[in-house]
User: What shape does this take?
Amino acid sequence: MDLSCDLHIHSCFSIATSRRMVPPSILDACRTKGLDVIGSGDGLFPGWRRMWSETLSSRGDAGTCVVPSAEVEDGNRVHHLVLMEDFDAFADLARDLSPFAPALGSTGRPRIPLGGGEIARAVHRRGGLIGPAHAFTPWTSLYASHDSTGECYGDEPADFLELGLSADSSYGAAIPHLSGIPFVSSSDAHGPDTWRLGREFVDLSVREETPAGVLEAIRRGSVVRNVGFFPEEGKYNRTACSRCYRQFELEEATALSWRCPGCGGRIKKGVRDRARELSAGTPGPRPPYLHMIPLAEILARVLSVSSAGARSVSSLYGRFIAAFGDEISVLTDVPVPRLAEVHGDAAAAIDALRSGRVRLSPGGGGRYGSFSFY
Assistant: This one.
């Protein structure tokens, strides 16, 4: 069976996350979004494991498979996504790592002052999977610090690679050392709003709808498709100043010694340019990548309001969900004439998205890109 999986989120115990990021709200958002599988986030934090245990004991999984997961930062400021089959394995991993990270229980996304290979070895000993989180971004990522997975993990394998919001599969398809490593897409959501949670996800072909089944599908490389942003929407897609957001060609930024001539800010290398540096030869085959824009953001554009959280957007969003069940179905499967019965202009915008009639203004330097339909 094919399952839609968002494996990277955060809890209310992580920095800069919503207080609403608690298990019941997450499960409710998954049902509205149409996600079959959600990563728990922050699995090394004992209070968060306890909250998930209590929620799942009292209400079950509400039709959503919960895969224990966590993001950690290593001693080189590289972020890693860790997946386990159960929360007991995360408790064991926390005990293994606690001598090296005394503050492990103080935040949802901890810093562990070890190398990537040492962390990967500990994860693999406990039966888990590990891969670089948002691998291409210019901050706290694999390719901000290393030129290959081997430089980071040594003899330990990278079990997958998370693309991040500023990249799609094409960005890694011609990087030789990534051949055979599955790409996953996930939201890295800090809040349960449906324009955050599930904004990127991966469809996996699994043999059983359990955490073990999801991990086994990743080991087999059974990715059906990746789904997520147009890379240009990501806030680090283009090389740009991190202060004024002026964009530069790579050669221009190098000639300027990575300082913006306008404001003096630091120029950050964009994901597109970093991926091109690492690429060589003909891109290898990858599962299809479906570019998707969250429904609430589409409706905000249609209704000419600035926020996806506006009341008018929430009202119209609710009408679509009441009519068709979940957001992913609205964006991908429901025939356009039926969508038009709810709102004609929104249906036309969704049709434009499906047809690729999207005009993009790329993001960079820390500012998201924008889109319009034609």
Remarks:
- DSSP finds 14 helices and 15 strands in the chain.
- The chain has a mean pLDDT of 97.
- The first strand starts at residue 2 and ends at 6.
